[in-house]
User: Which sequence fits this backbone?
């Protein structure tokens, strides 16, 4: 997917529709360093594990969990917050039609993001993933050659979870 700065794609997350435009090239290049610093420890730890014949359940419990924990242990909340603000707010490339019945898209600001994602932080990470795909899709396409076996293992049928809540 090759987009110009004026093109956008939409993504519905929860009850809100987001319109995502690519970041300017130099802003994207600047962010790429931070993204690589976050993602490479994770990928470099996980990719070698996919060559094993273990199922995803064994990998998740035995080997991947420590890699994920180690990769994210170097991140502070301040780094995560800063990266999310750069991806979602500072580039001024995301607009949203909220579930409040608005018919026109509004530029995503910090205050609006706080309102939308309050008690729904996971949706903010989903939006950040969409922004990363929009701006760095080519990078991830090249990485997918290496991580294809990982994706295949992660989509294997696993034992269903049993709900033990009363």
Assistant:
């Amino acid at each position: 997917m090759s987009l110009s700065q004026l093109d956008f794609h939409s993504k519905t997350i929860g009850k809100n529709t987001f319109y995502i435009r690519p970041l300017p090239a130099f802003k994207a290049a600047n962010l790429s360093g931070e993204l690589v610093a976050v993602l490479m420890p994770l990928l470099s730890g996980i990719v070698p594990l996919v060559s094993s014949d273990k199922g995803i359940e064994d990998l998740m419990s035995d080997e991947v969990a420590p890699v994920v924990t180690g990769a994210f242990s170097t991140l502070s909340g301040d780094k995560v917050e800063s990266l999310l603000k750069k991806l979602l707010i500072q580039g001024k490339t995301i607009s949203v039609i909220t579930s409040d019945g608005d018919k026109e898209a509004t530029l995503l600001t910090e205050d609006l993001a706080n309102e939308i994602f309050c008690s729904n932080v996971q949706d903010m990470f989903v939006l950040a993933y969409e922004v990363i795909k929009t701006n760095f899709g080519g990078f991830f396409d090249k990485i997918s050659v290496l991580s294809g076996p990982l994706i295949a293992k992660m989509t294997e049928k696993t034992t269903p979870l049993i709900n033990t809540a009363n």
Summary: The beta strands are 9-13, 16-20, 94-97, 106-107. The CA atoms of residues 8 and 21 lie 4 Å apart. The chain has one domain: 9-136.
